[in-house]
Amino acid sequence: MNPITVLGICYDQKSSFLQGPASAPALIRKSLHSGASNYYAENGVSFENDAIKDIGDFTVEEYFHIEKIVLDQLEKGQRLLTLGGDHSITFPILKAYAQHYTDIQILHIDAHADLYHDFEGDPYSHACPFARIMESKLATRLVQVGIRTLNPHQQEQSKKYGVETIEMKDFDMQILQTLTKPIYLSLDLDGIDPAFAPGVSHHEPGGFSTRQVIDIIQSIPIPIIGADIVEYNPTRDVQGITAALAAKLLKEIAGKMLG
Ligand code: MN
Ligand code: MN
Questions:
Q1: Ligand nearest to the CA of 114
Q2: Cβ count within 10 A of residue 35
């Protein structure tokens, strides 16, 4: 199993409602290294493991530059764990991944399907990345969980692209056992209930508990080729609770990738 590179993408220009996620990576790291916790995932893998390399943050001015940043790392044979940034970054990340992997399955945790054809005229809005990924055929399967804002347009889009959109009200852990190919995990922190994750732009009550998301990560039955944690908005956080949550999930995902 090749090692993991952690990087931050400081970009929130595709956020439709509030800015803020561009400053997320540094604050997630600050929480990770704060001394309030240790570096161990629950499976015993340490974040300080030699197999994990943190290459710091990238400030991005031009949206498609993200693809190049990711491509440079994939060419070194690394698997990536990316800290966003808003959710728009996942499309250029997958554009790079599709040049290195075939038959990618995506597990997407979110309150929102992010399948808009365009949002307020922008096809690259953070409300659209999975429409772009599916129409560009960058993944062969997209499984979305935690969704609780489906409208008729996004329902239509889900059908059009053959997306498995599993609404929060219908969630069942069994879906994870159907994942058969190496997966890319895209984790929008607003998939988690705002009671656990207040530091997001779009509060949508009725979501996953922290424990449920950790259980999902730990129950993934196949290798993870890459992951992102997106949409942390520090301007909305309370006492750094959401930064600590993102740091915890960073450890759990890294632990799972290396465990
Ligand atoms: Mn999202
Ligand atoms: Mn969302």
A1: 1
A2: 5
Cα 100 to Cα 139: distance, rounded to the nearest angstrom: 12
Work out the burial of residue 87: count CB atoms within 10 Å of its CB; fewer than 13 is exposed, 13-18 middle, 19 or more buried: buried
Q: How far is the C-alpha of 148 from the C-alpha of 156, rounded, in Å? A: 15
Judge contact between 126 and 16, C-beta under 8 A. Answer: yes
Amino acid at 159: K
Closest CA to 53 of 31, 37, 67, 73: 73
**Inter-residue contact 145 to 175 (CB < 8 Å):** yes
Q: Give pTM, 2 decimals.
A: 0.98
pLDDT digits (tens, 9 = 90+) for 13-59: 998 888 999 999 999 999 999 989 999 999 999 999 899 999 999 99
Pairing of strands 105-109, 141-147: parallel
CA separation for the pair 253, 259 (Å, rounded):
10
Per-residue pLDDT of 196-241, as tens digits, reads 999 999 999 999 999 999 999 999 999 999 999 999 999 999 999 9
Helix (H) or strand (E) holding 142: strand 141-147
Beta bridge partners of 5: 53, 80
| Cα 74 to ligand 2 centre (Å) | 26
Please answer whether residues 134 and 163 qualify as being in contact, where contact means their C-beta atoms are separated by less than 8 angstroms: yes
Rounded to the nearest angstrom, the distance between the alpha carbon of 229 and the centre of ligand 1 is 10
Q: What separation in Å is there between the alpha carbon of 191 and the centre of ligand 2?
A: 6
